[in-house]
Design a protein that fits this description.
Elements lengths: L10 E2 L7 H13 L2 E4 L8 H15 L3 H5 L9 E3 L32 E5 L2 E2 L2 E2 L11 H25 L6 H4 L11 E7 L18 E4 L5 E6 L6 E4 L5 E3 L22 E5 L1 H6 L9 E3 L15 E8 L14 H11 L20 H13 L8
Helix pairs in contact: 1-4
Bound molecules: 2-oxoglutaric acid and fe (ii) ion.
Length: 376
């Protein structure tokens, strides 16, 4: 499947999360594309906060391996994962897969990235080791995670308004003060084409991160100008690049010069898709290297991204589906067996229950079989 023209997604201003018209606009994008942007202005983040989080990520990945080893990824999916460290899908991959797993749309052989997964904070403290070099930065990272949660709350409120349900419906079910959640803040580093670690790269075969959909409710993606790579699978089955900063030239200019930072890209995850009977799309996406002929992206440009995976509280029941008239209408599609991974909540009938935690386990087991191997 060749890459097609860049996709044009709406950029939504979430500064008023009580505005029903904004909620409808957001819902329409979530139904049509499963992806939309949120304006940097009104998002609750300052350019300085986003910049310094990227600086921290760079600082982490630049540490010597012995330092990073101190927080190597564990079976709970928290910690650092170097490249080529695991083979979870030998049929489709030569190397590691630390993103959500590949499924039937899998493309490409490699995952040329490194990741640091940070789980929940309790009283401002991570529940996992950090390398000593980052110990002093923990409060700043905790602050960033808090801002991510706030932005997710605004988005979830607006989606609830669009779905014509109580605006608190999702927010109360994502409140980390009521129980553990699967939320993860992830720093990602994709070395450039000229990096020695990319020397085995084969154009048309290798991708930076394989095709997958995310597991949770919604995902926030922060990107840097001049470091594109994300593509989404369109309904026509083609890969469409997603611009980092729509309307802005793809340059390496420092974002402060433009008085902001690129809009935050939001996508719907499998859980929210399931919970809404497939009305909201959990769209397959991947990350690719710049094309060798690209004049816009330098070969020696690394890509860094910061991702926040927002999950409901583990004990949240996803069955029956969200009590929205629009979701009830989508139930018909469930009956026809046309909805997402494992059907929508409507297919479970009245008596069944399925918690967020059970849903996650079901998705992981469906993909991998035994859980011991799983790092997502
Ligand atoms: O780095 C990116 O742009 C996307 C990462 C991603 O899709 C993921 O971590 O699930
Ligand atoms: Fe993803």
């Amino acid at each position: 499947m060749a890459s097609s023209t860049p996709i044009q997604l709406p950029i939504i201003n979430i500064s008023d999360p009580t505005d029903a018209a904004t909620g409808r606009e957001m819902l329409a994008a979530a139904v049509k594309y499963g992806f939309f942007y949120v304006h940097s202005q009104g998002s609750g983040f300052s350019a300085k906060e986003v910049d310094s989080t990227f600086d921290l990520s760079k600082k982490f990945f630049a540490l010597p391996s012995e330092e990073k080893e101190k927080c190597r990824i564990r079976t709970d999916n928290r910690g650092w994962s170097g490249m080529h460290s695991e083979i979870l899908d030998p049929e489709h991959q030569r190397v590691c897969q630390v993103l959500a797993p590949l499924h039937e749309h899998a493309q490409g052989n490699s995952n040329h990235h490194r990741a640091l997964n940070l789980g929940e904070f309790k009283d401002g403290k991570l529940q996992q080791p950090l390398p000593p070099a980052l110990a002093d930065d923990e409060p700043e990272i905790a602050h960033f995670a808090t801002l991510c949660n706030k932005t997710c709350a605004a988005v979830l409120r607006l989606l609830a308004l669009g779905l014509e349900i109580d605006s608190d419906y999702f927010v109360t079910r994502h409140d980390p003060s009521t129980g553990p959640t699967g939320c993860v803040l992830r720093f990602l580093y994709y070395p450039s084409l000229t990096s020695p670690v990319s020397s085995s790269y084969q154009h048309d075969i290798d991708v930076r991160a394989g095709a997958h959909s995310d597991y949770g409710s919604i995902t926030l993606l922060f990107q840097r100008p001049g470091q594109p790579g994300l593509e989404i699978l369109t309904s026509e089955g083609t890969w469409a690049p997603v611009p980092v900063w729509p309307g802005q030239p793809q340059t390496n200019d420092k974002d402060e010069e433009k008085g902001g930072f690129p809009p935050i890209l939001i996508n719907i995850g499998d859980m929210l898709s399931f919970w809404t009977n497939g009305l909201l799309k959990s769209t397959v996406h991947r990350v690719v290297f710049p094309h060798p002929s690209s004049s816009e992206v330098k070969e020696d440009e690394d890509r860094y991204s910061v991702v926040f995976f927002c999950h409901p509280v583990d004990s949240t029941n996803l069955v029956p589906a969200v009590p929205s008239p629009l979701v009830a209408a989508a139930e018909k599609r469930v009956e026809e067996g046309k909805v997402g991974f494992g059907g929508g909540a409507g297919s479970f009938g009245e008596k069944r229950t399925m918690t967020a935690q059970e849903y996650l386990n079901m998705r992981l087991t469906a993909t991998y079989g035994e859980r011991e191997k799983v790092t997502v």
